[in-house]
Write a structure and sequence with these properties.
With about 425 residues, the chain is mainly beta. About 10% of the residues lie in helices and about 40% in strands. It has a single domain, classed as Single-stranded right-handed beta-helix, Pectin lyase-like (Pectate Lyase C-like, 3 Solenoid). The strands form 3 sheets. It has a 20-stranded parallel β-sheet that branches.
């Protein structure tokens, strides 16, 4: 028979063991000798709950780094003070690959990777705080595709990031759920910020400038997670997106026109509000269907349930590019209106009577905001499609506001 004292001792011992599983250990990664070996060894040997402290300095790395230990923090001295350069990388492609849960990355830079900057795949709780990813030679098709690249993940935080020069998307979140992208800057990328095939995302207080397209919300066919929905894009500045498209040919973002402020394609239940769009030479806001043929019977190529309200619009549409120049400007004239919807609906019934209420495009903007509905119909262009509708009042209304995204790693905020 156990005594009370023995039970208490057992409980205490059990608690100590439990605490040690996630022991709060700080490991200083040394700059002496081979920094590459020191850092990769620390990533392999780190105990869950550890913090790896990276020193200030510029470090040349020749091979990709990987982390598969959960609940690790990697922290540098700042995005300009701790720089990991992969310009001489000879093995691997991305700079850092994370495949474990509960990882926090903060205060360092990754430069000139031949592939993606930092990729996280299949993880729960990944946080990028004050991280810089840059290709220092500027826009170039040979640059890596993605800067920050969480994919197939849950509870994603990107906060205070800076990404330059990605040949696809600077800040990209794909096939993921519960996402916050905030306080970040994307410039000189093809796509500045991209949310693709994802559910429940908040994109706010960011600056997207000097990209080909500032902010993109996409859904693509033939992927494990489709039907992107419930995305809020608010309080961002998407301005002066004036970089010629330098994506490799065949990539879907290679079709993005230079000078696009926001493109929403084939998503549902999207709320766009409080943003500033200006100096985007093709258009400030484009709402469009997926433009390519596809063979996925579960895919819906149309934008649905879009609510655009309370944004401000500056100059745009004076020098359109790609499809805006070829298809939209001939119908609307110049400048291209502030908001353009291709009008794509499914079938003639919807063309005559409009989509179902939950699928309507609702726009509530200040007087003077210009608009065009091109009246395209899936697999058919109506005979009067050459004369777009321009009465923004046709889309008046309101929709229930989407809820804020909550992340467990921010519960103490």
């Amino acid at each position: 028979m156990k005594t009370i004292d023995s039970v208490i001792v057992g409980i205490v011992a059990s608690s100590i063991i439990s605490m040690n599983v996630f022991a709060q250990e700080t490991v200083e990664v040394s700059a002496e000798g081979s920094f590459q070996e020191n850092l990769q060894e620390a990533l392999i040997l780190a105990e869950p709950g550890s913090t790896l402290m990276l020193p200030a300095g510029r470090f040349e790395l020749q091979s990709a780094l990987s982390l598969d230990v959960p609940n690790i923090t990697i922290k540098g001295a700042g995005m300009e003070e701790t720089v990991l350069s992969f310009a001489g990388q000879v093995s691997g492609s991305e700079g850092l690959l994370v495949t474990s849960d509960g990882v926090w990355l903060e205060g360092f830079a990754v430069e000139d990777t031949p592939g993606d900057g930092i990729k996280a795949k299949g993880v729960d709780q990944i946080s990028f705080k004050d991280i810089r990813v840059e290709w220092t030679n500027g826009p170039d098709a040979e640059n890596g595709a993605y800067g920050l690249y969480p994919v197939e993940s849950k509870n994603v935080l990107i906060d205070g990031a800076l990404v330059k020069g990605a040949s696809d998307a600077g800040i990209y979140v794909g096939q993921s759920q519960h996402i916050i992208v905030r306080n970040s800057r994307a410039e000189y990328n093809v796509a500045g910020i991209e949310i693709e095939n994802s559910f429940f995302a908040d994109v706010y207080d960011n600056v997207a400038t000097h990209n080909t397209g500032g902010i993109l919300v996409f859904d693509l066919p033939n992927l494990p997670q489709m039907g992107g929905h419930s995305v809020r894009v608010f309080n961002n500045k998407s301005v002066n997106n004036d970089t010629a498209n330098f994506a490799p040919e065949g990539n879907i973002v290679a079709t993005v026109p230079k000078g696009t402020g926001l493109l929403v394609m084939a998503n549902s239940n999207i709320e766009v509000f409080g943003n500033e769009f200006a100096e985007n030479a093709s258009a400030n806001v484009l709402l469009a269907a997926y433009p390519r043929e596809y063979n996925d019977e579960d895919y819906n190529p149309l934008p649905r349930g879009i609510y655009v309200h309370g944004n401000t619009y500056g100059r745009a549409g004076w020098e359109p590019d790609k499809a805006v120049a070829e298809l939209i400007a001939p119908a609307t004239g110049l400048p291209v209106p502030d908001i353009v919807w291709d009008g794509a609906v499914d079938g003639v019934w919807s063309a005559f009577f409009g989509p179902d209420e939950q699928d309507r495009i609702i726009i509530d903007e200040a007087d003077g905001t210009t608009f065009a509905n091109l009246q395209f119909v899936k697999d058919l262009v109506l005979p009067w499609g050459a004369d777009p509708k321009t009465d923004i009042a046709d889309h008046a209304g309101e929709r229930p506001r989407l809820s804020a995204v909550q992340l467990p790693q921010l519960e103490s905020d």
